[in-house]
Specification:
Largest sheet of chain A: 4 strands, antiparallel
Order of helices and strands of chain A: EHEEEEHE
Shape of chain A: elongated
Order of helices and strands of chain B: HHEEHHHHHHHHHHHHHH
Structural class of chain A: alpha+beta
Shape of chain B: globular
Helix content of chain A: 10-25%
Largest sheet of chain B: 2 strands, antiparallel
Strand content of chain A: 35-45%
Number of helices of chain B: 16
Number of helices of chain A: 2
Number of strands of chain B: 2
Distance between the termini of chain B: 84 Å
Oligomer: heterodimer
Strand order of the largest sheet of chain A: 2-5-1-6
């Protein structure tokens, strides 16, 4: 099993979620986060005072998948989180191995709990 | 003014009663206008600095403030006597005003009280996030007593040439408070900023407004309430009130457009905070002038105030004073602009008397306007500076660094404006006794022996 963590633009969330649903991902976790990469921030002006907002709002999406399902999930996220054919700030995805997975309700483990 | 010779005008009375209520709404409006502009940690404190004025000034006004401001002059037009202390000798049949157009004294007392409330509230924006609330309350009580009540007497008390120094005796024009309210509050704000110093991190830490819709709501309420402030100052339901109403609205509109034009040209974008600030600047500037100018004068005053104030708010970055919410840039500058422009734009067709420079009145009125602004500004600045330093040296005015970092909401009021926490707070000590474990279904995981629920909650399958 692998944990897929994706940082994406918030407005792509609905498309990504729907696409993952279509390839059989039935549950995931989303968190509102702030950060910056090559996109850097943006500028805001309040009464002649200019503020550079370095960290921009992003969405962190986390989902645990079976090993043989991984590539399909990754390509799905990349395809639907990419904006205008690929722009700075579209985000990042990383994959980490998962040792154990447990469903709290039943105590089922690993792939049974996916 | 012998009461028995006066006849009550019901229409004027009705308008004055409504106007008092309109002006009352300005202080909560100001609280939201300011509250939206501060950071999350200081919203409630900002709002409370205004609401405290509603409480404190009301009591002092009834006790002695009305008498000091509108009692018969004790000499030289400086202050009223103590005949109306505790509203003594004033009853439901007491009238004030011209013979056939009189209104109840109580309506006038209420209307003028609302001015006395909002004036110290205006100052609070300059010292956002760094004043002890208890000291602020003491400051408000002392400030209205030694600054506002006398100044209101100078400007607003008329008694056939034996009234206040600046209005009745000198003949300076201030219809609704360009000097007594705005120049006064703005000069006091400058003094308090010098006493309290800059907020921690000013210039390096982001202090951007936390809630602009709140600012827009507050600005809307101010605009609405200002109709009572200015048109109500006619103390009558007549053409002068309508003139003031029209001029007030037109000036707010052109000032908003003027401020936005400066922003668009200087900063690249027209902002919502700029719209709110601009309309307030226009309302401030037209306040003294609304019954002295025609509609063209109102347009000019608005656009000048909007553009100059949009520029004035950037002075603090060059001069290094932390006027947090631009009370100086908007109220002091706007109040001075409006008061002085009367000297240019006043027309006898509206005032039935004095004319300004541009309408053939020469420099006489402009000179009087300058004197009135200088007198009020200097008096307010010097006394506020002395009062502020005295309070800082004795009971302490500025928050401790720890309390300032914690935020004025938590450190001064033990409250938070918004509940961002997902963890529920543990409830304890309501009315002095601990609630039963599990009361309101809020049993803590740390309870030693949680009582089993009477009915097991349904398990979702």
């Amino acid at each position: 099993m692998k944990l897929v963590t994706a940082i994406i633009k918030p407005h792509t969330a609905d498309a990504v979620r729907a696409a993952l649903d279509a390839v059989g991902i039935s549950g995931l976790t989303m968190t509102q986060v702030h950060g910056y990469g090559r996109q850097k921030g943006h500028t805001e002006i309040y009464r002649a005072a200019e503020y550079t907002i370095e960290a921009v709002p992003k969405l962190r999406l986390e989902v645990v998948v079976a090993d043989d399902h991984l590539e399909q999930v990754l390509t799905t996220i990349v395809e639907h989180a990419r904006t205008n054919g690929g722009s700075i700030g579209d985000g990042k995805i990383w994959v980490t191995p998962v040792e154990t997975l447990i469903r709290v309700r039943t105590g089922e483990r690993d792939t049974q709990a996916l | 003014m012998p009461t028995d010779a006066l006849t009550l005008n019901p229409a004027s009375t009705a308008w004055l009663l409504v106007s008092a209520a309109l002006v009352m709404l300005m202080t909560p409006g100001l609280a939201l206008f300011y509250g939206g502009m501060v950071r999350v940690r200081g919203v409630l404190n900002m709002v409370m600095m205004s609401f405290a004025c509603l409480g404190i000034v009301t009591v002092l006004w009834v006790l002695y403030g009305y008498s000091l401001a509108f009692g018969r002059d004790v000499g030289w037009g400086l202050i009223g006597n103590l005949d109306a202390v505790g509203l003594h000798h004033v009853g439901k049949d007491s009238l004030i005003g011209p013979a056939h157009d009189a209104v109840p004294v109580f309506a006038f007392v209420m209307f003028q009280l609302m001015f006395a409330i909002i004036t110290p509230a205006l100052i609070s924006g300059a010292v956002a996030d760094r004043a002890r609330f208890s000291t602020w309350c003491v400051f408000v009580a002392l400030w209205v007593s030694i600054v506002y009540f006398p100044v209101a007497h100078w400007v607003f008390f008329f008694d056939g040439g034996h009234g206040g120094l600046l209005g009745d005796r000198l003949g300076a024009l201030d219809f609704a408070g360009g000097t007594a309210v705005h120049t006064n509050a703005g000069a006091a704000a400058l003094a308090l900023v010098l006493v309290l110093g800059r907020r921690r991190g000013w210039g390096s830490v982001s202090m951007r407004p936390h809630n602009l819709p709140l600012v827009m709501l507050g600005a809307g309420l101010l605009w609405f309430g200002w109709f009572g402030f200015n048109a109500g100052s006619a103390l009558a339901a007549n053409g002068l009130a309508a003139t003031a109403l029209l001029n007030t609205h037109v000036s707010a509109a052109t000032a908003m457009l003027g401020w936005l034009a400066v922003e668009r040209w200087r900063d690249g974008k027209a902002t919502s905070l700029g719209a709110a600030s601009g309309l307030v600047a226009g309302l401030v500037a037209i306040t003294p002038a609304c019954a002295s100018v025609d509609v063209w004068g109102a347009m000019a005053i608005g656009v000048i105030a909007g553009m100059v104030c949009a520029w004035a708010i950037s002075w603090k970055y060059r001069l290094g004073y932390d006027d947090a919410l631009d009370v100086i840039g908007v109220h002091l500058v706007g109040g001075i602009i409006g008061s002085l422009l009367i000297g240019l734009f006043a027309t006898s067709t509206v005032t039935s008397g004095a004319s300004g420079l541009l309408h053939g009145g020469g420099f006489s009125l402009l000179g009087k306007q300058f004197l009135a602004v200088a007198a009020v500004g200097a008096y307010s600045f010097v006394l506020t500076l002395a009062l502020g330093f005295a309070l800082e040296r004795t009971i302490g005015f500025r928050l401790t660094p720890e309390h300032e970092e914690l935020g004025a909401d938590l450190s001064q009021h033990a409250e938070a404006a918004y509940d961002y926490s997902t963890l529920r707070a543990h409830v304890h000590r309501l009315g002095g006794h601990e609630p039963e474990p599990g009361a309101w279904g809020a049993a803590s995981a740390h309870d030693p022996a949680p009582a089993p629920p009477a009915q097991p909650p349904e398990e979702p399958s």
